[in-house]
Design a protein that fits this description.
The complex is a heterodimer of chains A (about 240) and B (about 290). Chain A has a six-stranded mixed β-sheet, sandwiched between helices. In chain A, strands 2-1-4-5 form a four-stranded antiparallel β-sheet, covered by helices on one side. Chain A is about 40% helix and about 25% strand. Chain A has about 240 residues and is an alpha/beta fold. Chain A folds into two domains: about 140 residues, P-loop containing nucleotide triphosphate hydrolases (Rossmann fold, 3-Layer(aba) Sandwich), CATH 3.40.50.300; about 70 residues, no CATH class. In chain A, α3 packs parallel to α6. With about 290 residues, chain B is mainly alpha-helical. Among the domains of chain B are: about 120 residues, no CATH class; about 55 residues, no CATH class. In chain B, strands 1-2 form a two-stranded antiparallel sheet. Chain B contains eleven helices and two strands. Classes of the chains: A alpha/beta (about 240), B mainly alpha (about 290). Chains A and B meet through α2, α3 and α6 of A and α6 and α7 of B.
Chain lengths: ~240, ~290
Amino acid sequence: MPSESPLLQIQDLSTHYGPIQALNKVSLEVEQGELVAMVGANGAGKTTLLHTLSGVLTPSGGEILFDGRHITRLASHQIVGAGICHVPEGRQVFPPLSVDDNLRLGAYAVRRDKEWVESELASIYEMFPILKERSRQTAGTLSGGQQQMLAIGRALLGRPRLLLLDEPSMGLAPLLVEEIFRVIQGLNKKGVTILLVEQNARAALGIANRGYVLETGRVVLSASSSDLLADEAVRKAYLGY
Amino acid sequence: MFDQILQFVLTGVTVGATYALVALGFSIIYNASDVVNFAQGEFVMMGAMSAIAMSAGDGIPVFLSLPLAVLVTIGVGILLQRFAIAPARGASVVTTIIITIGASIFLRGVALLLWGKSIFAMPHFSGEQPIHIGKATLLPQNLWVMGGAAFLVLGVHWFFNHTTLGKAILACSCNRTAAQLVGINVGMMMLIAYGLSAFLGAMAGILVTPITFTSYDAGVMLGLKGFSAAILGGFGNPMGAVAGGILLGLIESLAAGLISSGYKDAIGFIILLLVLFFRPSGLFGKATSERV
């Protein structure tokens, strides 16, 4: 493993929806073990960036290097196989399937390593006891916060080397937001490298090492979280004071 | 009177079992890809016709031609998905319906060119000695149809509830993007779903053709009846489709016997219309609840 180069390196990445450009030459890096936040308003291109990273969307230009390897035009299942796991915006659990099935499907790419899957499943259930309690219920019956835990657990079962989180706080009550962010911070402390995309800039920058600010498809700022939190423009635009 | 009714019921369940397999094929494809595949009946025809063709004259023995015919039909289903449905991904429901109707006309045309307009028979699996139940009679082939269909339905149920592959296909049907994001190869799952539907169609054709005979256009009516059965049971509910199939077969058979056989097909479609008017979600269709 080349330890010199960052785990994720994005260079001049552009993505179009038909004639509309949603990402404009975005470049960013995530080092091994880091928690990086990408903040920006609704429609700035945050979800597009993650979908392009995961292979759901095909970029129109630029390069994505993961652990030194070009993954720019791989299919999504190959990207998951390489170790990039994605917690999508709005949870997107599989409502008619049981909680247990949802988690096990998260391990689809690594399902042949049965021993690892079982032990990881046990540790997810330990991290989120409510999921264990409801493991036989269908995912559609869970509350929003529980579905978010399920979505995070599902992504962790894919054995991520890089975890992508898309708006994990969306639609949750403030207390739950706090809990979810504690979980995210805890995962990072355990060594999971995380790219966190958030509209809730204060909460995201509060736990991240570094941050990027995305505006209409471009990275306009990149600095350490504390510098961003102190930045006048960022404060006005995203923190509301 | 009772014996007569028993006879109608036995016949109805046999026909219904065939409808059930076709309806199950409709549900699987609809669930996996939101496509109503009107070429489903042609899978039934293809299974039977290719088996007969391979065994005709000095052809290969039946025990070989049957599995080969099933494989040929699965191949047709996979090709249909790969070259007709997949390229039209994202198209409207009406567009995909037109594509599958086109595919069904194409498959009928191929069958017509290969085998002509004749009606073909297939040997019964285990003799034609009738079994008497009271005054009603049953052919051993009826038992093959009912048993075979029951076995396949249970198999499909098991596949979707107890295998990772089955659950992965279900995952694609509830949320394609989320399925991609957990590493499921969605394109592959679609091919498997079409292959599975084609397999069920071919099995239905092979099981029932010794009783009903077949021809290049035998799939038309079977496809429509299977579609009605799927609507009756609640479209997209696989086990509802099976129940709808059996029920439709029973109603048709009783109506043909007790009212008039001339109205047999009409009854099936009248039921379809009534269901669409009064209970569009079907008998067993359930509204799914989803919290956001």
